[in-house]
Amino acid sequence: MTAAALLPHAPGQSRTVPRLLIGLAFVLTAIFVVAPLVFIFWRAFAEGWAVYLKNISDPMTLHAIWLTSLVAVIVVPVNIAFGIAAAWAIARFRFPGRKLLMVLIEIPFSISPIIAGICYLLLYGRQGLLGPFLAEHDLKIMFALPGIVLVTMFVTAPFVAREVLPLMQAQGSEQEEAAVTLGARGWQVFSRVTLPNIRWALLYGAVLATARAVGEFGGVSVVSGAIRGQTNTLPLQIELMFNDLNTTGAFAAASTLTVIALVVLVVKAALESRR
Amino acid sequence: MSIVIDNMTKSFGGTPVLRGIDLTVESGELVALQGPSGSGKTTLLKIVAGLEWPDAGALDVHGTDWLRLAAQDRRIGFVFQHYALFPHMSVRDNIAFGLTVRPRASRPGKAQIAAKVDELLQFLQIAHLGDRYPAQLSGGQRQRVALGRALAIEPSVLLLDEPFGALDAAVRRDLRAWLRNVHEETGSTTIFVTHDQEEAFELADRVVVMGDGRIEQIGNADQIHDHPASPFVARFMGATVELPVTLHAGRAEAAGLDAGRLPRRAQPDGPATLFLRPADITPVADPHGRWHVARCDSNGAALRIDLTDGATTIPVDLPRRAPEARGLERGARVLLRAEAGALFAAPRRAQPAPAVRTEYPKEKAV
């Protein structure tokens, strides 16, 4: 309900109920969302700037930030490529298994990430299905970067596809057909017609995927082994510090993660107004 | 560039949409494909464009087998009903698109492309719109841009799919005259799809009437109008009144019908169906007539009259100032005089056909 719909109101219509509901929404948002966020920063800076900086520049925390960024940098481009390919295939072609593919893409949304982690462990782990093969060829996937990347990819797989697909379906293929009749080859059609049409949805999906990749905890915690300074991502590092009773450190690390999330949120809002 | 289509068939998921199409379009000709939706006309156009592929048949354009050519290599101009302009490009960039995607070797220089675009903008009478984006244009302007974009590659064949279908009546009439001029100046072989009869007849040298995946008739306006080749064409051309008659010595006879003005037919005696347009029926006052006026509405220029014999109702359009219109009011008894009509032998089926089909022709959007 917008303010415009509220304000010149019909005579006899109560204003109390809408006001009450709006007030309630604000209060609940404040309690459940704003307060914890403020609290994170308040606790992070509780012992002053110096301690905050020391906590942030702790080598283990720095490594965690680096590892988390690395994972995001690998995962997000793969995600974009996969998302476009899947959306393109589903929107433009009719093939057996098309519906199934649509359902499969959504699976990571409905499955708890920790289950994904365990599945990967059972597949690639030392005792897993492919364990002996991997050991023989000296390939280390579990408790190493590849495992973290794989699980993060699984968890973030639907984001780009889900944003791009509805748009491609709504736009139909006429523009692409027009481009083809004008002599454009496959790649030209994609780069000059398809891509510009989906660019905002694509960016939006990528931003969401980035946020998820950076913040992923459950699945990664199973496959990373949380080796400090080696396979500890930022969310895992926060948990470790918290368990070590280093609350200020945990909150300092959490504040970096929160800043990333807030930046993503602002970018997302900006993108939404562009669409 | 003559186009020869030979015995072409196509089906979508088991449903046949083209059931053997033979059609030759001469070089420089402007041909309309006309028919109800689902008759296969758009599919046929898309096959010529290379956007669809037939199951069987041949497509030969000026001696070249086009079924071996990808759409990109056919050099056709295709205009879509909903324009399909590229929304993120200006009008200029839209028109230049077909030139800028050419491989470097055959791509004209930047200045040449700009000059070509300028020339087209002038030619299409949209010179002032070059820097706008499609979203800032009206429907008619968008369709001009779409046509400009298609003409920029100097197409060997111009294909238009319901080019004016999404526009309002006045703009449509305007663009129709304008397209005719464009065709006369460029001389390109043109096929366009339409479901609007007026548009088809006014624009095209020849009209191809399609129904259910087949070509029902090919001809000019007068031929198709006066001599429909099949009941389907007769109905499609607005002859929606179907009277069961008996043919006797080449004349149609039925109670309450005066068919004396129809020429004698060289058809065998027997049951037949007379197809009439509401405008080709004149009610003639007759105190013992089979029909009486059930309703009579005026739109100023014409009267729309419902005649009934109690069981069936038939619509009649009569100019309001016609002498026969005098004294026509509810309840007046009349007989029908057929001014023109088409006769087809009744199908040899045991079941009696419904006596009269009463269906107003679709409101023409004029």
UniProtKB/TrEMBL annotation, chain A:
It is found in: Cell membrane. It comes from the Bacteria. It is a multi-pass membrane protein. This is Sulfate transport system permease protein. InterPro entries: CysW_permease, MetI-like, MetI-like_sf, Sulph_transpt2. The chain crosses the membrane at residues 20-45, 65-88, 100-123, 143-161, 201-227, 247-271. GO terms for cellular component: plasma membrane. The complex is composed of two ATP-binding proteins (CysA), two transmembrane proteins (CysT and CysW) and a solute-binding protein (CysP). Part of the ABC transporter complex CysAWTP (TC 3.A.1.6.1) involved in sulfate/thiosulfate import. Probably responsible for the translocation of the substrate across the membrane. Keywords: Membrane, Sulfate transport, Transmembrane, Transmembrane helix, Transport. Residues 65-272 form the ABC transmembrane type-1 domain. Its main location: membrane. Pfam families: BPD_transp_1. GO terms for molecular function: ABC-type sulfate transporter activity. CDD domains: TM_PBP2.
TrEMBL record, chain B:
Keywords: ATP-binding, Nucleotide-binding, Sulfate transport, Translocase, Transport. Residues 3-237 form the ABC transporter domain. One of its GO terms (cellular component) is ATP-binding cassette (ABC) transporter complex. Pfam families: ABC_tran. One of its GO terms (biological process) is quaternary ammonium group transport. InterPro entries: AAA+_ATPase, ABC_SmlMolc_Importer, ABC_transporter-like_ATP-bd, ABC_transporter-like_CS, P-loop_NTPase, Sulph_transpt1. One of its GO terms (molecular function) is ATP hydrolysis activity. The keyword ATP-binding applies. This is Sulfate transport system ATP-binding protein. The lineage of its organism: Bacteria, Pseudomonadati, Pseudomonadota, Alphaproteobacteria, Rhodobacterales.
